[in-house]
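User: Design a sequence. Structure:
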């Protein structure tokens, strides 16, 4: 039985074609990008990521409190 064909998003498909034209492998490029971002996060240098995490956590905190208090945050 043949494996199920994975459908690529238009963005991923275009990215793969661009990288192929540049002689680069998509999977290796992706691994490097993820690794680089992880290193920035671990070093505390990715401010955009930090802000997004705090925003998400504040949203969760407020939603939990609202659900406990019946909709009144005070």
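Assistant: Done.
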């Amino acid at each position: 039985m043949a494996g199920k064909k994975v459908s690529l998003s238009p963005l991923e498909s275009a990215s793969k074609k661009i990288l192929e034209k540049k002689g680069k492998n998509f999977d290796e490029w992706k691994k490097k990008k993820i690794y680089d971002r992880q290193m920035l996060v671990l070093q505390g240098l990715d401010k955009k990521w930090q802000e997004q995490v705090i925003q998400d956590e504040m949203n969760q905190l407020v939603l939990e409190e609202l659900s406990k208090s019946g909709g009144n945050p005070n």
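Residues 47-69 form the longest helix (23 residues). The chain has a mean pLDDT of 91.
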